[in-house]
Design brief:
Layout (H helix, E strand, L loop, with lengths): L4 E2 L2 E9 L3 E8 L4 E8 L1 H4 L2 H15 L9 E7 L2 E7 L3 E3 H4 L7 H20 L12 E4 L4 E3 L19 E2 L12 E2 L5 H4 L6 H17 L9 H10 L5 H4 L5 H10 L11 H16 L47 H21 L6 E3 L2 E4 L2 E4 L25 H9 L4 H11 L7 H9 L4 H8 L23 E6 L4 E6 L12 E6 L3 E3 L2 E4 L4 E7 L15 E8 L5 E5 L11 E2 L17 E6 L3 E6 L1
Antiparallel strand pairs: 1-2, 2-3, 3-4, 4-6, 5-6, 7-8, 8-9, 10-11, 12-13, 13-14, 15-25, 16-17, 16-24, 17-20, 18-19, 20-21, 21-22, 21-23, 22-24
Amino acid sequence: MIGRTISHYQVIEKLGAGGMGDIYKAQDARLHRMVAIKVLTNASAGDSDRRRRFIQEAQAASGLNHPNIITIYDIVSEDNSEYMVMELVSGKTLADLIPPGGVGVARTLQYSTQMADALRAAHAAGIVHRDLKPGNVMVTDSGLVKILDFGLAKINVAAELTEETQTLEAAPLTVEGSILGTVAYMSPEQAQGKKVDARSDIFSFGVVMYEMLTGTKAFSGDSAITTLTAILRDEVKPIAELVPDVPPEVVEIITLALRKDPKERWQSTQVMYTVLAAQKAKFDSGAFSNPGFVPPLGRPPSQAPTWQPPRDSSQAPTPVAAPPPPPARTRGRRSKWIWVAIGLSFAYWRMCSPAKNVRVTPRGVEIPGLSIDTSPAPAAPNPPHAPVAEKKAPGILTNQSIIEMVGEDVPAAVIIGHIRASNTKFDLSTPEIIKLSKADVPAAVIDAMRSPAAPGKPAAPAPPMLAVTPAPAVRTVPVVGGVPFEITLVEDVPNDPAAGLPLRFQAAKDYQVDGVVVIAKGAAVTGEVVLPAGKKNILRRGARPMFRLTAVDAVDGTKLKVKAAPGRSSDKNERNVEPPGHRGKDSLAPAGSTYLAYFDGDQTVAVKK
């Protein structure tokens, strides 16, 4: 093959071998670029099913235009052989990059966020990978992730099956009853030959994330059969026992992906990507000590996104419904400095001249020898013989003019000086005080409005008034359904709990939305034990006790509906009481066990501004 020209591609060197054929580096003579060519082996080319799968891979991957999925350029049929031309990716596979002990939390989030982004694009196009593993994930020197071999379950003709490199085949790709995929990374439904969907990729993705984080395979055995048995029967070793100081949110993301039952896993890579991207942004900012999950986008996961994820996966996704920015002040900064000049000039002339020589007008302040104009632009001169508009009496201020000066960031000292010079009797009725308070008028300014006489001069006693406490301003904060937050168990759960046994939890951290706490640390969370009647696991054992959640206390005193399982559907509200990795004999779950609660539908909380 080396030195041969296929169409307009000149083969330069061999890069490696895959399950379907060999891979070569070649030069595109027309576009003057380097490419990779996968060649279907002669043995495979004579098999119509293998040829169909080879073409299917090219068609599936070529339909996905995504930065984290390898790009297919062309497919060539020549001399009774098939050639797939794709982009040449320089880098190493995850299988080569993962050391003993794992790659760490930062790189796990960096790589997995890009992988989730690629998977959600593939799943949205109706494509399930079926063979996601570290060997099929390439990482460039710049940290860009590329998923390879999309739409293909690799087929090996081998005398011996091993858990790391071999792929099982029993039937065509889409037929229920086939067992396809690399053994150590199969989902339970793959291992049982059942029909698979996108949630099978989510399980395999969880296995890859576990291996990235710990450096250890999630499921392994002495043979392919024992590995399959472990996938069907065993729970993974708790991450905390292998790697210390992993944020609980990251552990929970992987734990949910590794659920045996597809209905208990993440139901969508769209949601999984959103949570991973938020956790990556949080970790990169050094804010993992801050409370709670960063909420995902304010829309249902099933709704088509109205934003495009950033090409640079280190950036967090941009929310669809971000809070509106404060209104722009085109003249704020300019007016602020003008009023500072007014205040300084006013203070100087107050000391040097009688007060009667200082005039406050709608256009500004007039002082002997100095006039400062604060209007936006000079008015056009009146034409000859035009009537001159009557000027307002100097020194007249109103509540509205005070609010306008505060809105333009005029210093309080300047406003108070105006008040004392004007000798205006302001309307300080209860509604007006509330209006002034809502406009953020400082208390010192309101006091000056009540007693406008300058310091040192006796002021007329103000009429007695009832003390008015302005009503606190509040705003409504949306809480997105399906978003998780961490909770801890308050009391031990006995080994044989009765159905309906009340359970008490509390929020492990403050949960914030847009920087505002909506669920305070220690807030009460209620739940109860559920015993699924007659439900058995895959080994025919009795089902373990489950629990459901009902409500959590919000900061405004309301109770928000919560549930124990992810997703936006209210009927998914059960999870195992026994925490993963717990081996205690004294209780089914000890006090202090951590779980994730999920908001049950979109809700709102009233918080102070």
